Amino acid sequence: MEVHHTDVRILMLAWKMKAEKQGYFTLEEWRRGLKALRADTVSKLKKALPELEKEVRRPTNFLDLYSYSFRYCLTEEKQKSIDIESICQLLDLVLGSQFRAQVDYLIEYLKIQSDYKVINMDQWLGFYRFCNEISFPDFSGYDPELAWPLILDNFVEWMRAKQT
Amino acid sequence: MVLHKFGEKLYSGLVATMTFHLKEICSSIEAAQGGLFLEELNRKWADHNKALQMIRDILMYMDRTFIPSAHKTPVHELGLNLWRDVVIHSSKIQTRLLDTLLELIQGERSGEVINRGLMRNITKMLMDLGSSVYQDDFEKQFLESSADFYRLESQEFIESCDCGEYLKKAERRLNEEIERVSHYLDAKSEAKITNVVEKELIESHMQRLVHMENSGLVNMIVGDKYEDLGRMYSLFRRVASGLVLIRDVMTSYIRETGKQLVTDLERLKDPVDFVQRLLDIKDKYDKIIGSAFSNDKTFQNALNSSFEYFINLNSRSPEYISLFVDDKLRKGLKGVSEEDVEIILDKVMMLFRYLQEKDVFEKYYKQHLAKRLLSGKTVSDDAERSLIVKLKTECGYQFTSKLEGMFTDMKTSEDTMQGFYANVGADLGDGPTLSVQVLTTGSWPTQPINTCNLPTEILSICEKFRNYYLGTHTGRRLTWQTNMGTADLKATFGKGQKHELNVSTYQMCVLMLFNNTDRLTYREIEQAAEIPASDLKRCLQSLACVKGKNVLRKEPMSKDIADSDAFFFNDKFTSKFFKVKIGTVVAQRESEPENQETRQRVEEDRKPQIEAAIVRIMKARRVLDHNNIVTEVTKQLQSRFLPNPVVIKKRIESLIEREFLERDKGDRKLYRYLA
């Protein structure tokens, strides 16, 4: 299909198929997804990809894809968090095209901070909200006294220190 | 005449006649010279009044019939009005009267004696003529000229006097004016003239007085000048924001001195002295507020908030207050009467109340209490108990339940020992006597589990105790806390001197080794006793390097213990006391690293408390926004410590991760409780 396995479109495909495990598609999931895409040949599948991309971009769907992408990376049975390195890659993959600047700085920060070695779902969701709701790079409207995850409070503080 | 309808004629005739007559009187008054002016006026006024009375009596019929129906002024009133218009308001008399009155008052202010009776009559006359007459023809000017006078005088005073003197003078002037009014002015003038004095003498110079160098408020406070302070208080109270000024200056001074005290590194080296100084400061200000500021509640509050402010500037205050209490309960209260003990403990409680970090105090108090109980070094059991009761009243049962557990353990251990000797005593023979305290793990401060090799001489009795205890208490585990015990050893030295040495358990282990040999190296001791290195070094230092307590001799004679050192039994040891105390189980101010450690433990302890508070609140409220959670948690915990909002946030996130809470899907500012 000429799509690289680290391409975000694979992720989108997996989402559409509601695939449980990264890297694997069960037969059921495969069937379900292809049915949803109305594709029964490889070429039709290829053609369906741009449509899929557009579908994903819709806000409600995107949020769904976004939280799905986190779960998709959990490999162990009771795992709840993902290590920083993988999170950085995931951020780049999923949000990179939409929020380039924020993602770059966020990744830089995540790599140098030492408070957190893993990120949980709550924090992951916080990242998306942050990119969506807070203007960049001034961060006006960001209030650390509200319910933002602490890691983002620290990120904003770090950014502000850099800016002065 | 009225009956014959000639009322009008009679009336107008009266007016004319009286007017004419009064004009004559006027001239005669005007003619009076100097001081006689007032007297003449007074006399003529008295005459006039008498005449008026007579006239009224004579013309009573007219007064009652004609005048009301013709709407004319009644006779008496007419007489007064005419007096007013013709005499008082005559161009010559009006100003002269006013000037004379003011001159006399001024004279009296300068110390002259004036005829007060005369003055009273004149002012009464003015009042009789109508209060507006009194006000317009006298009072208004009186107030104005008084204001001018006092303005000048206050300027003079402030240049030449110090604060205390100035206040005395101001007070004197104020009292003078009040007295003046009561003697010869109308009562309603009192409030007005006192206002004038207050404004000119006090209000205009308030700031300058309070801040006056070398004599202002701060100097008075430092010098405990109760009288001056009292005077300042009662004078300034009369003026708007006068007391606020005093209170603010006092407050910033207290905060300043307090801050200096808690950051003075030299002072902080002696915790007991430090806390004593705090108490002294509180006493000083209590006395000032009591004797000079009539126990004004707002001042009390200002004092309390200042103390709260600076005591919490130093994070070691809780530790120091506990050390102070420790000192008192170990020796300071020896021989003190029961009531005085209560007074001191109440003062300690007062300081305790100011602490923001009460949980830190609890930690230290527990440690120090443990040392006191275990070394048997408490002056009065009653005093200990009394303080626990006070803490319980202040903080609730939970705060003191563990402390009480410690006391219970001590009592129970006594009973256990009795049982032990009753049961096993016969088998013991001549060996050493043992006294054991069995400590319940939860109640006592957590100790690192350290054991060492106990000397053979006591091993057997220790084992017997262990067996006895476990025999009567199944399912329990006993561990010897060798770092907390004491021992009394009988020692004989070179020339046969006998001494009784009171030592710690570790010291005993070391010393007993010398029963078999006179020389041991550090390594040998370490191996034989198996005491942890840092404790062993401290132990050897106390046995070999302290003058008067050197039962061991060290080579080389340096102060520090090196691994290569050798130790000898000191044959030549002497002491004038039979009983020599070498043990080191006394509570001391922590070193920096120890302090850090304790602080860390406190922070760790706080996490579950914060989480418990969050869960309690969310369980009750179900849904709540972030700010409100922080506020509620702070409120719930404030009797123990002030939680850090960042820590609260972290705990919330941890609870979210563990699925006790979740973020609301709609409004992301809210948290939701998950049942």
Automatic annotation (TrEMBL), chain A:
It comes from Rubroshorea leprosula. Residues 1-160 form the DCUN1 domain. This is Defective in cullin neddylation protein. Neddylation of cullins play an essential role in the regulation of SCF-type complexes activity. One of its GO terms (molecular function) is ubiquitin-like protein binding. PROSITE patterns: DCUN1 (PS51229). GO terms for cellular component: ubiquitin ligase complex. One of its GO terms (biological process) is protein neddylation. Gene3D superfamilies: Cullin, PONY binding domain, EF-hand. InterPro entries: DCN-prot, DCN1-like_PONY, PONY_dom.
TrEMBL record, chain B:
The keyword Repeat does not apply. Residues 316-544 form the Cullin family profile domain. Keywords: Isopeptide bond, Ubl conjugation. The keyword Signal does not apply. Pfam families: Cullin, Cullin_AB, Cullin_Nedd8. SMART domains: CULLIN, Cullin_Nedd8. InterPro entries: Cullin, Cullin-like_AB, Cullin_homology, Cullin_homology_sf, Cullin_N, Cullin_neddylation_domain, Cullin_repeat-like_dom_sf, WH-like_DNA-bd_sf. Belongs to the cullin family. This is Cullin family profile domain-containing protein. It comes from Rubroshorea leprosula.
